[in-house]
Amino acid sequence: MWIKAMGSTSSYVSSSSSSKWLGFVAAVWIQCISGNNYTFSNYSDALKSLMHLTQLQLNNLSVAKDVGKAFGLLAGLASDRFPTWAILLIGSVEGLIGYGAQWLVVSQRIQPLPYWQLCVFLCMGGNSTTWMNTAVLVTCIRNFRSNRGPVSGILKGFVGLSTAIFTTLCSALFADDPGSFLIMLSVIPFAVCLTGVFFLRETPPDVSAGDDDGEEVKYFGFFNVVAVAVALFLLAYGFIPSPSMLVSRLFVAVLVVMLASPLGIPVYSYLKGRLGGGNDVERQRLKEPLLQIPEKENEGVVAEEEAEIVKRAPEVGEEHTIVEALRSVDFWILFVSFLCGVGTGLAVMNNMGQIGLALGYPDVSLFLSLTSIFGFFGRIISGTVSEFTIKKAATPRPLWNAASQLLMAVGYILLAMAMPGSLYIGSILVGMCYGVRLAITVPTASELFGLKYYGLIYNILILNLPLGSFLFSGLLAGILYDMEATTTEGGGNTCVGGHCYRLVFIVMTGACIVGFFLDILLSIRTKNIYTKISTSKKPKKSLGTSNRQ
After folding, report:
1. Is residue 70 left, alpha or beta, with left meaning phi > 0 and alpha meaning psi from -120 to 50?
2. What's the N-to-C CA distance of the chain in angstroms?
3. Of 221, 247, 275, which residue is a domain's last?
4. 285 in a structural domain
5. What integer pLDDT is reported at residue 3 of this predicted model?
6. What pLDDT, on the 0 to 100 scale, is given for residue 470?
7. Which domain holds residue 440?
8. CATH code, 363
């Protein structure tokens, strides 16, 4: 009977482990299509000419898109009350409607909508991604608690690649037609999320212990290799001059195969668990506590601990309620520094079409791909390396944010100088540093304020996206551009030359410097927390030695 029980237990553990990894593969696929909110520049010029908009009006449309993220608080609240599949379904349907309506306008299948209605549909499209991202990040961070950095880096990395994936697919299949691009943004995310609802789910911590940390690191390493290969593949295709239809279709086929390759991880995990099930059970037994406290005594201890917690506010590194997090000085330091990084980065992405025209580049698809691909490298490298430096040297994760702010300021200075080639270098630096900010802030928030209300805390931080878009893109870039622009026939305006955005980049450089000092301050304030995290991640050699004896 014991042998039969052991067999059934090993089967359960292996299937749970493979289910967890299958869910992570689904999460990667969802992240590959959930960066559609960063693709506004691909069709913004079509909207501007079709509706005869000024640059300020066009920038306010991009703000409306980003305002949709402000309603991500609803997704955060829902993440603690509804299953993952329901959150994914809401986001996919909302995106289908939001981007579908924009496709009807740009493809001229209907008359141009009133300005306010178009703002509503852009807002819906922007909000749809918050449901997808919340479902994916909250579920995966909870499933892989001991490797939050790599999880965040990989998932956010694929979000960074999504712009390049959509842009390159549209270029390969539809010759950069804005209408075809928008139909892709509405249909593909809907189909992928419908697939994801069957596989992405939260795994209880005691079950997810089937894989040890070493195995998880190896599996995450494979995901990193696939992600880097996809990024290099997309980058190489972007430099092919006028590829033929055969080459384009071959590219799409290879890309699909590359994105499907991570399915080998859950298959391998399942087979390994079935064939070596006894080891899994033994590992589960070794992870049980050596000292069991009787249930009644344990209840008394828990009651005493709860009474003690009620008497004092939680410290940074402990579980926080929403109110407790909002009362924390460290939360607002993280919030404002995040605004300085992602707000300015969004301004560049939203205005890339007009920045390119001002500097003499009518086609900005390459610059959008550079921003996306190097944003991916920033996310995936910072997630993995920051986790490594925490384990080895207890380096506070916010220190990586500080480095990214400084490098981003260098990128804005280069863009302000408007030298030949500066848009290439500036796109790379801004994209990479924007990616670092997103990948580092996600695990930092969970480490400082806990996982219990992480979904809502994450979406409060994401409020910086619409706020930053409004401040730096809608107000700063829109107003200063219109001051430099000349009116065109039909009511729009245009500006050509390095002076069009120079003052905008100078102001954003100053914002990055402010963010740099805030991140340094947060690193100093949280040094002790990361020392404790580093200690907890190191193997307990004495325990291993006693077990062998």
Report:
1. alpha
2. 29
3. 275
4. no
5. 43
6. 85
7. 315-537
8. 1.20.1250.20
Q: Which residues pair with 494 in a beta bridge?
A: 486
Q: Is 203 helix (H, G, I), strand (E, B) or coil?
A: coil
Same domain, 28 and 93: yes
Q: How far is CA 468 from CA 311, 343, 443, in A?
A: 38, 4, 21
Comparing C-alpha atoms, which of 508, 518, 456 is closest to residue 480? 508
399-425 b/e (C-beta count within 10 Å ≥ 16 → b): bbbbbbbbbbbbbbbbbbebeeebbee
How far from 538 is each of 144, 212, 213, 477, CA to CA, in Å? 17, 13, 11, 48
* pLDDT for residue 240: 78
| Within-domain flag for 305 | no
Residue by residue, DSSP assigns 268-336 as HHHHHHHHTHHHHHHHHHHTS-SSPPPHHHHHHHHHHHHHHHHHSPPPBTB---HHHHHT-HHHHHHHH
Domain count along the chain: 2
Length of the chain: 549
Predicted model pTM:
0.71
Assess if residue 296 is contained within a domain: no
Q: Residue 2: its pLDDT value, please?
A: 39
Question: Do 265 and 319 fall within a single domain?
Answer: no
**Could you give phi then psi for residue 273, rounded to 5 degrees?**
-65, -35
Decide if 202 is inside a domain.
yes
Please count the other Cβ atoms lying within 10 Å of the Cβ belonging to residue 329.
11
- Residue 260 sits in the same domain as residue 319: no
Same-domain status, 260 and 350: no
Tokens representing 360 are: 């003499």
Which residues of the chain fall short of a pLDDT of 70?
Answer: 1-15, 175-176, 205-213, 276-312, 489-492, 539-549
* Structure tokens that stand for 256 in this block: 């699909």
Q: Which of 243, 275, 307 lies at the terminal end of a domain, its last residue?
A: 275
Please identify which residue in the block is written with the tokens 């954003």.
508
Task: Mark whether 207 and 347 lie in a shared domain.
Answer: no
Task: Please tell me whether residues 260 and 327 are part of one structural domain.
Answer: no
Please name which of 125, 154, 120, 161 lies closest in space to residue 140, comparing C-alpha atoms. 154
Q: Is residue 184 within 8 Å of 169, Cβ to Cβ?
A: yes
- What residues contact residue 108 under an 8 Å CB cut-off, 6+ apart? 50
* Same domain, yes or no: 207 and 325: no
**42: number of CA atoms within 13 Å, CB side?**
34
For residues 533 and 461, state if they share a domain: yes
